[in-house]
Amino acid sequence: METLRGDDVGAASELAIVARSRRLDSLSPDALQRVADAPTVVWRGPEESIVAAGATASISADGPDRFETVRETATALFESLQGDGPRPARPRLFGGFAFHDGTGTGTDWDGFPDAWFVLPRVQVTARDGARWLTVTADTPDLAAERLEAWQDRLTGATDAERSGPPGIVDEHRTPSRPDWREQITAALADIRAGRLRKVVLAQSLSVDLAGPVSVPDALSRLDETYPDCYRFAFAPGDGAGTFFGATPETLVSLTDRTVRTGALAGSTGRGETRAEDEWLADELLDSEKDNHEHDLVVEAIREQLDPVAARVTTGERSIRKLATVQHLETPIRAALDADRHVLELVEALHPTPAVGGLPPDVALKTIKSTEAFDRGWYAAPVGWIDAAGDGTFAVAIRSALARERTATLFAGAGIVADSDPDREWDEVQLKYRPMLDELE
Ligand SMILES: C=C(O[C@@H]1C=C(C(=O)O)C=C[C@H]1O)C(=O)O
C-alpha cells in the first residue's frame, strides 16, 4: 500500500494504479463489511450505498493546510490511475477531516489524523437496484486477479444473523450538568457583550459496553431508522476504532458545477401524538430564537458560496423530522462560476455556524477553550471525492467513536442570545439518542 503524507504530491503522481470494475447484481454490500479487515469504509446516502475495504493508497495530512494538501495529493493520485468503468463504480477516495486542526495523539482520536483518505482495494457500490464490484491494484494483472478473487469471496455470501445492541454498563458525561450551565452562562455573557453571535457547544458521553459493538449490525439498524440520512463508518485501522453515525446534515455535494448544500439548525423534540408533534413543529417554525439561529447559518453559507458562485438560490424553510428530533431546514443550491474541486468548497464551508458559530474565529476559540474533550472528527466533513473533483461531504454529527468495549458519543447545541442552559442540555440528550439506541 502507498501511504502518502503531507506534501507527497510528487510521490502520488509517480504511482501507477489500475482500477477494474464489474456489474454483479447478486452481490450483498453487507458481506464485504463482514469479511474485510480495516481499513474499512461504509458510505450510505439516500441515493447509493458503498462498502469499501483495504488500501491501494491512502493520504493523510495534519494542520491548517490539510484541505489543500489532500486536494493536491488526491489530484496527483487520480492522474496516475487508469481504468474507469461505469460512473457508480468509479474509484473514489473516501475519508474525512478533524473538526479542528491539531487533533491530537494521546486522545481517544489516536489513529484518526487531521485528514485521512483511502483509495480502497475493493469497493461494492449499490445504486438504482444495480451492484458493482470495483478493485484497484498496482498492476493490471493484480487488478484482474483481485477482481476474480473478490467476486468469488463475495458471491453467494449470505447475510449474517444480526446481533442486538451490546448494552451499557457505565457512562461518563463531559461536562457535568452544573458545568454545562456555567459554560452556557459564560457563552451568553459573551453574546450579550457583543463578542459572539452564536456558538455551538458540544458534550461527549463515554460509555463502557457489556460487549464489543458490531458496527455492521448497528449500521443496518440505523439504515432502517434513518434512510434519508448519511450513514457512515470509517475505520482507518491499527486499533484506531470506528467512527460511525447517521447524520441528517449535508455539508456540500458537487456534481460538475452544481452545488447542493443547506442549513440545518434549530431543534425541538418529537411529540408523543401526531397533534403534539405538529404543535412542536409549528412552535419551532414560529420560534424567534430558532429562526435567528437558523438565519445565521443560511447567511453564512450564502456568503461563503458567493465568491465562487454565478448564482446561489435558497429554497423554502421547512421541518426535517427525524426519529427523536425535528429541525429547521433550508436547502441551498449554487451554480459555480468555474470548475472547482469539492474540497475547495469543503474548506470554505467548514465549519458552518450549524456546528461552529459566528464570528467563526471567536466561536472556534470559545469551543476550544470551553470543551474539555477533543472533537476529533465529530461535526467535521466526511465523504468522498472522485477523479473529476466532484464529491459529497456530510457533517459528522449524530456519531460515535467505538473501540472494543467502549464508545464515545458526541452532540452539541447552538447557543444564541435567548438560549436556556437546561433546554439546550435536553436538546443535546435528544441528539445522543440515535447512537445511544444502538448501544444500550
Ligand atoms: C451540533 C449538532 O447538531 C447541529 C445543531 C443544531 C441546533 O443547534 O439546533 C441542529 C442541527 C445540527 O446542525 C449535533 O447534533 O451534535
UniProtKB/TrEMBL annotation:
Reactions catalysed:
chorismate = isochorismate
The EC number on file is 5.4.4.2
Tell me which residues make up the Chorismate-utilising enzyme C-terminal domain: 177-431
| Gene3D superfamilies recorded | Anthranilate synthase (3.60.120.10)
Matching entries from SUPFAM superfamilies are given as: ADC synthase
Task: Give this protein's Gene Ontology molecular function annotations.
Answer: isochorismate synthase activity
Q: Name one Pfam family in it.
A: Chorismate_bind
Keywords of the record, alphabetical order, are:
Isomerase
Q: Domain of life, per the record?
A: Archaea
Region annotation Disordered: residue ranges? 156-178
Q: Where does the record place Basic and acidic residues bias?
A: 169-178
Specify whether Isomerase is a keyword of the entry: yes
Q: Give the similarity note.
A: Belongs to the isochorismate synthase family.
The name this protein carries in UniProt is isochorismate synthase
Q: What species does this protein belong to?
A: Halapricum hydrolyticum
Q: What is the lineage of its organism?
A: Archaea, Methanobacteriati, Methanobacteriota, Stenosarchaea group, Halobacteria
